[in-house]
Every structure is written in structure tokens, then in C-alpha cells.
Amino acid sequence: MTNRFENILQTVGNTPIVRLNKIGPDGVNVFVKIESFNPMGSVKDRLALGVITEAEESGALKPGQTVIEATSGNTGIGLAMVCAQKGYPLVVTMAESFSLERRKMMRFLGARVVLTPAALKGSGMLAKAVELAEEHGWFLVRQFENEANANAHSRTTAPEILAAFADDGLDYWVTGFGTGGTLKGVSRVLKKESPRTKVIVCEPDNSAILGSGIPQHREADGSITESHPLFRPHLMQGWSPDFIPKLTEDVVEAKLIDDILPIAGDDALRLSKSLAREEGIFAGISGGATLAGALAVAEKAEPGSNVLCMLPDTGERYLTTPLFDGIGDDMTEEEVEISVSTPNYHFASAPPPTADEEEEEAEEGAPAEVVEFFDAATGSTEEPVVLFALEWCEFCWSVRKMFAEYEIPYRSIDLDSVAYQENNKGGNIRKVIEQRTGLKTIPQIYVGGQHVGGASETFDAIKDGSFQEMLEKNNVAWNKSIDTDPYSFLPGWLHSR
Predict the structure, then answer these.
(1) Would you tell me which of 125, 145, 274, 278 could form a disulfide with 70, CB atoms 3.0–4.6 Å apart?
(2) What is the mean pLDDT of residues 386-415?
(3) pLDDT at 361
(4) 222 domain residue, yes or no
(5) 387: confidence class by pLDDT, cuts 50, 70, 90
(6) Which domain CATH number covers 432?
(7) Which domain holds residue 477?
(8) CA separation (Å) from 465 to 240, 409, 448, 457?
């Protein structure tokens, strides 16, 4: 086995199966398949690579064609990775209710994210994707009906499971359903190659649409026509959309499911936290939910049974969800108590910040060529707004964020960057700043040759309108509709504790 690959796509799959040692009843072996080991942190990397590869091979996806799909996030992140590597533009539609982390990751990977109203649920974002695909001639992935989704799991996930339990066998395989791809692709292989393995499917207890037996209305091509009548919003993002996907229905019709278990949202949150704190495994809400199902199975299983559950993604997808309620940014009382248990290096022993900028000593004097450079930079009519900054400085980044929010064009002269290291050019520029202003602190901002000041002075000038007047005077355009408080961009640690 090699750890050298030609591209990131070759790293998809072959995720580990790990035994739980602290969670679960005695006498039964509970294992988890940790899909966060895929490069983008979820099981949906398999789907993304599979559907794009099959579409290329069939000719359904043309070179350079835009790919579009509706997603709660993980499929979109996987598609963003695959499309970035292969060179396809990607648009995803996503209900606004799904976590911010996911949409930011997709955009970071180059995808465009079109949000749909939360009230329209998953079917709304799906309908939007169809609408856009038809209007613009884009390739629609159709993950909920696309057989390539299931094929990817039959080709990769299922053989990995069979190989792991080749010696002692697998008694129970526990999973949820999102698109139905994992469920269909793995279950059909397990039932053929390991008939003893029972397939257990979990779903939210307040939205038990699969276990209801009520059929899903759909078009002839498998796409849905409306939400399932029993769907209710639930905590398990990525699990159970507001309809029964065609791939999932195929599994029901083929009678591959041995049992369907309803899972409480509170149990999902609790067990996701337990995985982290007792086993050191960082999984999302859906992983906690699947584990809840696996533990229910394990309680009734014969001694010595092997139970495997799927952990679809990483907990980092859920930082802004209820999973992280109670996990604060600041120290807890217990942490403060630990901090002050020794005499030094805590907030009570340190002088409070007296300025809103980072400070370093500047020496006297600067070479003539540096003075000339400084005068040319601050006196430029093409780039009137100049920020003298340090790459690592939080206050500098506060100003950068504020400029970005107001769409103010500026030149950043990063004094600690490689470009200003030769002959200590950055340090000599700081000498000039101190000589001209009497200030040693960074950042320092100029507009049209006029010194504004540091971060706080600039923010004050924004609030009282004098900064905007300077922009007008120097013909600098900015977004006049923005009215954000500049001080909201300051580092969080500066705010009162």
C-alpha cells in the first residue's frame, strides 16, 4: 500500500473501521466506520467522485460544463473537491437552514452556493437545482436517483466492510439514509456476500417517514413531486430529507432492510459528544444518531456479535448548530480557576491593553530610498488608501475586514512580509512612520497622503463620516449602502470578558 498519490481523488475511500472500547454493552463488539477520513471529511466524497466519473464516461457531462446539485452540504463539499480537481464549474442549491460551515467550505473550494428559503425544505432546494439546470443547460447530478451514487458504494464501501470482517463475520450493519446511495450500494452487496448480516436503518423519531409505510409520490424518472406528508424538521442534518429518495425506496422494495429504528435528536447530540469525550472520535450529529441505533441493536444482540455503524462525517461541520451549544469561546469558571492557580501568565496578572494595535520598537533613522518609497506610496493618486500592516496582526486584519465590508480599495504594505525583509526595509518603513507621526504602533492608515491613524482612529473616522469625506476628496469609490459598526471587526479577545 502506498501513501503517494497522483491527485486528491485517489485518496477517497479506504476509511478505517474502529472498535469502541468505552461505549456499548459488555460482550458485544461495536465498531464504527469513520467516513471523516475521506479528504473532505464525509462519506459523500465517494458519491461525488462516483457520479462525476460515470457521467464523464457516459458522455452525460461535457468538458467544461457546469455541474449543479441540491445538497445539505456534504455532497456539495465533495462535489466541490472533485470539480475543482477536474476543472468543472459547480453551483449548489442549499436550504438556508443548513450549517454555515458547509456553505463556507463549498465557496472556499470555488463553488457558488445559491440559498433557498428554509420554509421550502429540501424539496425546495431540489426544485431550484432542476430549474437552474434546465434554464442554463447545466449537468444535474440527481444524487437521490442517480444509480452511480449507489454504484460507488457497491464498488468501494461494501468491499471495505467485507474485508474488515472476513475472519469473524459481521452480524449487524447500521446506517441512516440521506440520498440512499450508501444504503443501497452497501446493503445489496452485504445481502449477497454476507447473508448473516442484518441491515438496520435509522431515521429521526419525529420524522419517521420510512417506517410509516406511506409511499412517496414521485415522477416516472424517480424525482419527487412533493414532500412526504409525515416529514417534520429534525436535528440530523444530512439524514432523512423531506422525502423518501428513489435509491432508498429501491432498497425497501428489494426487501434488503431487516429493521427500521427511530432515533431521538437528543440521543444523537449526546452520543456525538460521547464519541468525542470517551473514544476520541470526532463525528457529526448524524454519527451520534447512527451510533444510537447501533447501541440499541447491541443491547439485544447475542454475546460476541459484531455491530458496525456508519459515522458519515466530522463534527467540524456543526460548529454553529445545537451540537456545540455550551461550548464557549471564553474560559469557563473551572478553566479560570486553573489559570489563577499559579501566580503568573494569566489575565489578572497582565496589564490591560492600552492601545488597539500591536506595538514593536522602531529604531531611529531610515535610509533615503526608504523615505522616498514611503512618500511615493502615501502620495499615490492611483491607490490613495494605504494600510501599513503586519501579516500576523489581529488589528490589521480588523481593518482589512472593515475595508472589505465597505468595498474600499486599498494598498496593503505588509512590513513583516518577505517582500520587505531585504535590508530590513519593513523595519525602516516603521522608522519613517514613527518619525512622521510619533507612533510606534501598527497598523497605520493613510488616505491621499493624509495620516488617519491606527485601527481605532480609522474606525472612529468611519463612524463620524470624516473617513468617507477623505475618500470622496480622493475619488475613491466605496459601497455607500453599508452601515456596519466598524468596531464589530475588532478581535474578540479585546471585548470585555
Answers:
(1) 125
(2) 93
(3) 42
(4) no
(5) very high
(6) 3.40.30.10
(7) 358-494
(8) 51, 17, 16, 12
Q: Are residues 54 and 132 in the same domain?
A: yes
For the chain, what is the domain count? 2
Catalytic residue (choose from 42, 72, 123, 286): 286
User: Residue 346 falls within a domain, yes or no?
Assistant: no
Any residues with CB less than 8 A from the CB of 193 and at least 6 apart, and which?
158, 162
364 confidence band (pLDDT: 50, 70, 90): low
Taking only the tens place, the pLDDT of each residue in 211-220 is: 898 988 888 8
Closest CA to 370 of 395, 388, 391, 393: 388
Q: Say how many C-beta atoms besides its own lie within 10 A of residue 441's C-beta.
A: 21
- Would you say 28 and 295 are in contact if contact means Cβ atoms under 8 Å apart? no
The tens digit of pLDDT for each residue in 446-494 reads 999 999 999 999 999 999 999 999 999 999 999 999 989 988 888 765 5
The angle subtended at Cα 176 by Cα 81 and Cα 319, nearest 5°, is: 55
Question: Annotated catalytic, 44?
Answer: yes
My answer on whether 308 and 454 are in the same domain is no
> What is the 8-class DSSP label of residue 22?
S
| Domain presence at residue 189 | yes
Catalytic residue among 33, 44, 128, 184: 44
Torsion of CA 241, 245, 248, 252, to 10 degrees: 110
pLDDT above 70 coverage of the chain, percent = 95
